[in-house]
Amino acid sequence: MIKTEKLVYGSANSSVQFEGSISYDDSFDTPRPGVLVCHAYGGHSDFDIKKSEQLAELGYFAFAMDLYGQGRRGSNPQESMELMNEFNSDRVLLQQRMIHAFETLKNFDKVDENKTGAIGFCFGGKCALDLARAGEDVKGVVSFHGLYDAPTASSGKKLKGTIKVDSSILILHGYDDPMATPQNMIDLADELNSKKANWQIHAYGNVGHAFTNPEANDRNSGLFYDAHADQHSWREMSNFFEKIFS
After folding, report:
1. Helical H runs in 61-168?
2. What are 234's strand-pairing partners?
3. For residue range 73-99, what is the model confidence (pLDDT) as tens digits?
4. How much of the chain is helix, strand and coil, in % rounded to 5?
5. What pairing do the DSSP bridges indicate for beta strands 168-174 and 198-204?
6. 5 forms bridges with which residues in the sheet?
7. In this structure, are residues 102 and 129 in contact, taking their beta carbons and an 8 Å threshold?
8. Which pTM does this prediction carry?
9. CB-based contact 43:80 (threshold 8 Å)
10. To pair with 92 at 20 to 30 A between CA atoms, which of 76, 147, 148, 228?
11. Do residues 70 and 8 touch, judged by C-beta distance below 8 A?
């Protein structure tokens, strides 16, 4: 049976408490590959819980993390943008919180810490990529209609690491995404090449941003759901994880 539980977690190095969720199939009695689920700009939501439950159905232990902190969620686009921009302007802090969430995932008894991955949607795609960029030992990272700008250190702060050679990266991209243009996609490919990363990009024609979200319906702004791209990208992710975790 698939179980989903709320999870409040914190860090010994910070007073911030976080509230995410975990999903898993309780019929397994051995540790499972663990997948971190990174939320879009509004914060941890029912969308992330649904994706976590779908991962649990595939046999994975899924941890839908909280980047912002308990009680901090965007209730409208403006609030969500303000929350996201706190981390867009401080990628070191983003990196630190991603690493903390990743360590939390690996510490679950139900997780095989040698088989870990991360997925992210929209802003969460950037977060998942930044986990790999930090040099963490994550086997696979998947970005769904993510944001691609490479991180730069804030004044007086230092970014960690670079992508490990045994980490694999899958980019699932809407070619007409106004928030991640074809040039942005090429820039990301160049960055990943320069870091000797093991990467692949799948681009969907006539598909915009947020193509996995059935509630996205703003075609004028380039944010709209696409059932084919949603289903195909999930299959690509499933095949990707099946291969790297085998």
Report:
1. 77-88, 91-106, 123-133
2. none
3. 999 999 999 999 999 999 999 999 999
4. 35, 30, 35
5. parallel
6. 22
7. no
8. 0.96
9. yes
10. 76
11. yes
Spatial distance between the Cα atoms of 143 and 169, rounded to a whole number of angstroms: 8
- β-pairing verdict for 61-64 and 14-25: antiparallel
Q: Which residue has the tokens 């960690």?
A: 160
Task: State how beta strands 32-38 and 61-64 pair.
Answer: parallel
Structure tokens at 20: 């995410």
Q: By residue range, what is the domain housing residue 130?
A: 2-245
Per-residue confidence band for 207, with pLDDT thresholds at 50, 70 and 90: very high
Question: In total, how many domains does the chain have?
Answer: 1
Hey, what are 244's tokens?
Answer: 């790297």
Angle between the 91-106 and 77-88 helix axes, to the nearest 10 degrees? 90
> Which helix H or strand E contains 235, and what residues bound it?
helix 227-245
How far is residue 160's CA from residue 157's CA, in Å, rounded to a whole number? Answer: 10
